[in-house]
Known about the structure:
Elements: H1 2-18, H2 20-31, H3 35-57, E1 64-68, E2 71-74, E3 82-84, H4 92-105, E4 109-111, H5 120-132
Parallel strand pairs: 3-4
Antiparallel strand pairs: 1-2
Amino acid sequence: TPGERAEMLLKLADALDQHADELAELESQNVGKPLGSAKDEMPVASDNIRFFAGAARVLEGKSAGEYMRGYSSWLRREPIGIVGGIAPWNYPLMMAVWKLAPALAAGNVPFSAAFATVPVLVMAVYLLIARKLGAFEAL
């Protein structure tokens, strides 16, 4: 449900806040970003996730209408399934958030390929999601 998706995204944002310092350290060590800049990015990322948590509950758009005489139109909001997010290697955390959060808010399963050049931070965030949200208990 939209409420469940919103709650899950809020938990993700909280987990990002709880691990912000270690994630910033990882980003700084992995790609050479100044530690201060990496730390500044963390609350922006969690705020974006909270934005999409709210958006999950208020999907906009006309739900029914009369566009032709004698016919009614409806929009049925259903997840489309697996969503592939393609992001460049630069600005990894926000690129991941901008792909991941809207897909989850809409009820889809986001997918990102684990390329050898993907910054470690993105993989760490995905592991954090799996551990904190119970996606994969074995991890």
